[in-house]
Amino acid sequence: MSMLNIFNVSGSAISAQSQRLNVVASNLANADTVAGPDGKAYKARQVQFQTQLFDATGSDPAAAGVRVAGISESQAQGRQIYDPASPVADANGYVTYSNVNPIEEMVNMISASRSYQNNVEVMNTAKSLLLKTIQMGQ
Known about the structure:
Blueprint: H1 3-29, E1 45-53, E2 64-73, E3 80-82, E4 94-96, H2 102-136
Family: Belongs to the flagella basal body rod proteins family.
Protein name: Flagellar basal-body rod protein FlgC
Subcellular location: Bacterial flagellum basal body
């Protein structure tokens, strides 16, 4: 594996974790939203990752990164709270809230943030090693 591939691998992971953080932020922002006029509440979204090969021939399995394969919506039922006085209550008096679990989203945020930080540290270490190698050659 070339030293320059380290930057490709870490760069792809940073990009993927950045997208994950954006999805988590969207989920947290909509955690307490109620069903809209269509009767459907916000559904939590999750990011799916997939291996991305950098080598066109696939002969170097070490030259693989990560990419976002897609973003899916949770099909779990949203919270329903009995509040017949609410203007958005259904015929039975229940208000449907989003199915976002703020605790799970905070864990996702911490995990994505740590992964992001670790990949930045990998890139900084690789840069430092490359600079020291260049200095040795002078």
